[in-house]
Amino acid sequence: MNNYLEPNEWCIIEKGLKPENNRSSESIFSIGNGRMGQRANFEEKYSGDSLQGNYIAGIYYPDKTRVGWWKNGYPEYFAKVLNAPNWIGINIDIDGEPLDLAKNKIEKFERVLDMKNGLLKRSFIIKMPNDKKLKVDTERFLSIVDNEIGAIKYSVTPLNFNGEILITPYIDANITNEDSNYDEKFWDEINKKVLVHEGYITTKTKKLDFHVCTAMKFDIYKNQRINGIVAKTIEKEKFIGNTVKISANIDDEITVIKFGVVVTSENHDKSKLMDVAKQKIDYAYSKTHEIMFKEHTNAWAEKWEKSDITIDSDIAAQQAIRFNIFQLYQTYTGEDERLNIGPKGFTGEKYGGSTYWDTEAFCLPFYLRTSEPQVAKNLLLYRYKHLNKAIENAEKLGFSDGAALYPMVTMNGEECHNEWEITFEEIHRNGAIAFAIYNYIRYSGDKSYLSDYGLEVLIGISRFWKQRVNFSNQKNKYVMLGVTGPNEYENNINNNWYTNKIACWTMSYTIETINYLKKSFPKKYNLLKEKLKFDEKNEAGKWKKIIDNMYFPEDKELNIFLQQDGYMDKEQVLVKDLKQSETPINQNWSWDRILRSCFIKQADVLQGIYLFEDKYDTETIKRNFDFYESRTVHESSLSPCIHSIIASRIGDINKAYELYLRTARLDLDDYNNEVAEGLHITSMAGTWLSIVEGFGGMRIQEDQLYFNPSIPEQWNSFSFKILFRGNLLKILINKQKIEIFNQSNTPISLMIKDKKVNIHANKQIICKL
Ligand code: BGC
Questions:
Q1: Residue 369 Cα, ligand 1 centroid: separation in angstroms?
Q2: Mean pLDDT in the chain?
Q3: N or C end of the chain, less CB within 10 A?
């Protein structure tokens, strides 16, 4: 656990620099703008422990698979998000001594992530080995308005000497990934150009041929006045820079304003990349740092205006929820349907920047409720466009006739993860992709999505489920063998309740969709039938048979759903009996011991209960919750949020609050001892849900919004906003009442508890709780 960050409503603050915290802080203070993002590495040289990370959305490397024993069906490669050329560098030297926080005596250090304005700041005072004292203030942002541009303001003030300061702004393309299977360097240089105060490097990835041009342009000011001192250019392999020598007296503030631009062949003509980079950087430069920053903060203000959550009287909870929202918006802005959301966003290499089921199961509901429907639709279209690859993926495993298995991990639709128990067996992901279509439609009301795109995906997935089950004569039921459920601490199990559930649900939703399209869009339906060679009678008939005869494990005595066949054979111990020194178990126990234990990594049966909650009464939910929560170690970030929502649903608000803090502060407090590797971006959406669906009790039922609120004892009030079918609503809940402001020009009717209320345009209603 970490506890070195200061509480603050709008900022994350670190005071003092402890080298052992640096990697964690580099993750936590990351900035991004949906197109690119970077860890909070320092601009100046740092010889201490650090993970250099500067990432560009969609730019990856298919690293050759490394496994002990090759299994047929393994993908050829594992996709890696690439550490991209570093444009932030600004080295400072005084009398031949580099400014280096690992070597200098630090008298004061503060790092701040200003979430309101999307700004990363540092200020520090250091004494160098030559006794020279310096004050340094830095600010950095990646423009959320023009997402190929970033800017740095870097000020140095001598505190006890008059002398010369050497300043070297540079771009370094000689970078590596920490996570590389064969220690390869992933970038080749194509060309470069360095001028006075300006420079460009074009690089390309060794495979796949992504081209990237990284540019810089800078000015130096002395006491706010531009300083015309000529710079010396530097040009080395994969490196360009300028060195400027400037004389300064005590208290003179020397400021570098450096712009960085990153343009790629994904968005521009390859042959013109350097020209485009030049135009962009000239544009930013002539616009000025001040105006670029103003536009950036205005855009952030707009985002916060639509999505801020306030929590009165609980600063840790308040800070955490803003941190989660901030990081989500930094990672995905929803303008480009080719992009998706990696579990670590732009904050680390782990999970390779690839797309997981996390997007559909966790992120989609967040974007759906806080952004225009097109944003969530783009996430769905991403999968629609990968349907053929999902069919190929299934074929590689021996399925046929249009059965689609979406990959567990992907960059371009191909599976790129190579652990058999996950690649081949963690097939519940297919269900999440189907459920996301339903989720989008029930929230947005955009039913045309079904005929335009949705049905094709649903049929592909249902065909897969049909082939993946088999009939057990012994059980006289359909069964699904050899799977891994969401709980990855069990592999190759039979009849994972959740997977069986979501499989049947998909088939029945597909049948429901077919019936709807037959009635409402018969022409389109017939065209689709032909395109997919869909034999409705036979195929849908078989699905129905499976749905009606599927086997679901349960424990009759305890009256609970069973995670899988044989779960009760395990020694039944509880998380509360685990010694603290043994947790997290994935860092302290052998894998063998974990697999044999009853401990559960993340919501599994409860993930199903969360999705299909309306099918169960409160007592059933409670029994299952009590049983599984006491055995769940929450060692996946995706877990506490779901448990928190269910705890709110059954009225266990203390538990919901405890789990809320765990999900919301997972990274800030480093519950799972791994934040150094990067943040858990996808579970941040789950945090948001644990407020809105958890405490806010928001649901959609039959095209209508529904709130059944509760409030933790620790809070005086909380408020959140959602965008529902064009209506922006602000919901404020305190211990006595719920107030809903309809901040739009059309009226809306909705349910509060069991009461229907109408709210006029731009009006509010108040209901007692
Ligand atoms: C979880 C998966 C998840 C992945 C990426 C794993 O630890 O068990 O459910 O998809 O992380 O977030």
A1: 23
A2: 96
A3: N
